[in-house]
Structures are given as structure tokens and as C-alpha cells.
Amino acid sequence: MALDEVESRHVRALRLDQGARIRLTDGGGSLWEGRLVAGGRSATCVLDSPSVPVAALPVELAFGVGNKAHVMWLVEKSTEMGVSRLVPLESERTRSVADAGRSPAFWSKAERRAISAMKQSGGAWLPEMAPPCSLEDYVERNAGPTGRGASGMTRRVRLDGSGEGLRSVIEAWGGKDHLGMLVGPEGGWSDGEVELLEGAGFRPASLGSLVLRFETAAIAGLAVVAQQVLDRAATGDIPPSNDAGG
Q: Which alpha helices (H) appear in the chain, and where do they start and end?
């Protein structure tokens, strides 16, 4: 298999010699052990044996777009956590600082950051990144009489200090279907937006009494969910799966 220009450059930067052991993934759940057979500008490798990757975290994380550095950090760290899908949202209180979120160049850079984070963490799932949309459009897409909406989410939470602890809120979630988690924005949701979310079934869930930045809250929330999934898998409530990725 010939590696592309970016990965060949990475091989040169690492100064890998012929025969070096490497791991390869397509970001869609395929993971292989291999070895380098040629370096240079067009590196070539041999795929020796497939590996079983850790399943993706079945979470769709939606967040209010704000400061671009904070958004980039969220993309990187949530990818390391194995999140399945990322959905950037425009909100009333962040429209004036969300210009970067409307830039294709910014999201192209964010995708490259996600790829690096996936490789660094040893994962095999690159999260799907949806184009930015308004909160109203997001809620409309996920509304439905069955409670599942267009994305198949059976449970929806919004991280909010007014709710019960996140762990108890998602206790009834089986972990087999996707969980919708909403976080942010900087400055919080407006009263009208909170009313809209409550009507759409996004239940408030707390991470504690302190006020967290939206990117900190997102990663803390994903960590709680990951622990829930791990605990249920250990007791056999959730069968091991490798097809939960975006």
C-alpha cells in the first residue's frame, strides 16, 4: 500500500527505517498492523494483520461555536475520546464570535487536527463533522413523534448545572443507540433556546457546581459517558461492538 503525501511526510519526520512496525487505519474502523517497506517521498507499507479497534463512543456531541481556539481544542480532545459525531451550532449569544465556524478553511484545519488526534490516541474512528447550523435547524432535524429523530438518538441531554448529575440522568440509557449531548455556548443558552431544547427532549444534566468553559464541559461529559459504557460492557449489559462509529 502506498501512503499519501501527508503520511509519507510523517514517516520521514519520524525517521522510520525500512521494516519499522506501523499501524494503519482508514478512520472508519479498519485497523491494521503493518511494516514499512520503502520510505522517501512516496512511502510504501505492507499490511500484515488486521486488529480489532476499540469501539467508537456512541455520542453525537453538539456544541455552540465560540472562540476558535477553544473549538479546535474541543475537536482534538473529543476525537481522542472516540466521539462518533460533532455538530457545531450557532446560538444567540455567540453569533458575533462565530465567524471562524463559518469558514471552510477553519473546518479543514479542524479535520486535520482530528486526524492527528485519532492517530495519537491509537483510535480507528474519525468523527463525522457536520456543517455548522442553527440551534433551531438542529432541533427540527432531531424532533420526531418517536423521540428518535433523524439521527436515531434515543436519549438527549444538555449539560446544565440546573439538572441532576449526568451519571444518573443517563443511567437508563442502554448504550446501544446514540446519545445526543449538547454543550455550550459561551454565555449560556438564552431563555428562548432553553425552552426550545426542553420541548425537544434535551434533559438538563449537571457536571457539578462549578461553571465550566464549554470545551471543558464537553470533555468532562464524554468522560462520564465513556465510564458508563465501560462499566456496562464489563457487566455484559452492552455487547462489544466495532460498528458504532460515524
A: 5-14, 68-80, 104-121, 135-141, 166-169, 191-199, 214-234
